Amino acid sequence: MAAPTGDIGLIGLAVMGQNLILNMNDKGFNVVAFNRTVEKVDRFLANEAKGTNVQGAHSLEELVSKLKKPRKIVLLVQAGPAVDAFISKLEPLLEQGDIIIDGGNSHYPDSIRRTKELEAKGLLFIGSGVSGGEEGARHGPSLMPGGSPAAWPAIKEIFQKTAAQVDGEPCCDWVGETGAGHYVKMVHNGIEYGDMQLIAEAYDILKRGLGVSEDEIADIFNKWNKGVLDSFLIEITANILKFKDDDGEPLVNKILDKAGQKGTGKWTAINALDAGMPVTLIGEAVFARCLSAIKDERIRASKVIAGPQKEPFRGDKQQFIDDLEQALYASKIISYTQGFMLMRETARDLKWNLNYAGIAQMWRGGCIIKSVFLGDITSAYHKKPELESLLFDDFFNKAVHKAQPGWRRVIAQAVLWGIPTPAFSTALAFFDGYRSEVVPANILQAQRDYFGAHTFRVLPGKENEKLKTGEDIHINWTGRGGNVSASTYVA
């Protein structure tokens, strides 16, 4: 029997799987392809993979037999039970040190579990985020691997050569332990939700507020794409706005305003709530999609609920457009600030050692949120790996302060017009809350103690005989209540 020649195996020949195989083949790696419906393997080899070095396998046994050791097998199948089903079928065919890689959009707790289960059996596991869609998979995605650290040296060359390259650097590096790869991909997708919502709000302000046509908005976006907002999403939105249907009308005007979602943004928002981190912009982006989904109810509401009478804009139109560019930039800074705060908190909780500069660098190319902006985040974390907040970095601090006047003018004008700006507005609310030494949570805590005896802590410098520093204090506010507290104070 001939010695195995396969560098890596891949299970799942949908669009992403096929394109990733062809990409790896282009980079000089010998890939063995398998699909549960084996006819797909033959069709792929006879068509898209014709003339390449890609090998086919018609069973899992054949797949394993064609791979060099340690065997490396990528699963690109639907997240959830299908991943576990393939892992359970592969386990008895593999040997100690072999590596199973889940490249789907799995929820990170599943990757934590799978890493532990497979390591206990002598196998290694990697859960890798893969971003960039069909185009990225074919020509260079952003890859975010995490899991068993011992597996990284065996796949490093394949992953880093397959990934997108920016300034000679691969958009792929080791993320961290257990579920860190899929966790970082989840936060990436949450930030993607925020970026998309911000762009949609900017479009709405230009269209409904200023009365600008789709072609003009596309020109504005193309101009923005040459500056601080240079990004994949701004670029494709300009292309979308320019695209005409057969009758000459912009196609975007014919698309039903109900947005779908696959759940990764929701996972990020839930994780933020569980971690107690104020990732407000991603949360609002998810809720904006939920609001869009109740289209029939919004139609009924539009007929019975009146907003403000829309006054024509009498200011300097170009100045307002420039303000909007700054508002979008500042809000984007806030979204990434919140995303990195969430990753920092989760890493602390799960004892992951995340490389934040490396994460930003991985996102610079190949993925949906790729932008020039991420190079600045990479620089910020290179300068200070333990940076507490992007807003503490000189570059971002100055950028937000420069944007602040225009940011406020845009939101104020949108409010006067009655145009909803959930993402812009929550970004500014977070900014104002974050920079406030004092917020009105003293009232909240007093209310909690008044109705539920939930106690409070006293401000340093305001102590007396009754109010002592560091103690959980309950006050009999009415004179009719007792002195027993219901619970200790937890902030």
Overall geometry:
globular
Structural class by helix and strand composition: alpha/beta
Major sheet characteristics = 8 strands, mixed
- Report the β-strand fraction as a percent range: 5-15%
> Low-confidence segments, ≥5 residues, pLDDT <50?
none
Enumerate the strands of the largest sheet in spatial order, edge to edge or round the barrel. Answer: 3-2-1-4-5-6-7-10
Radius of gyration: 26 Å
Q: Quaternary state, please?
A: single chain
Query: What is the H-and-E element order?
Result: EHEHEHEHEHEHEHEEEHHHHHHHHHHHH
Alpha-carbon distance between the two ends: 66 Å
| Helix percent band | 40-55%
Q: Write down how many β-strands occur, each being a DSSP E stretch of 2 or more residues.
A: 10
Average pLDDT across residues? 94
Instruction: Report the total helices.
Output: 19
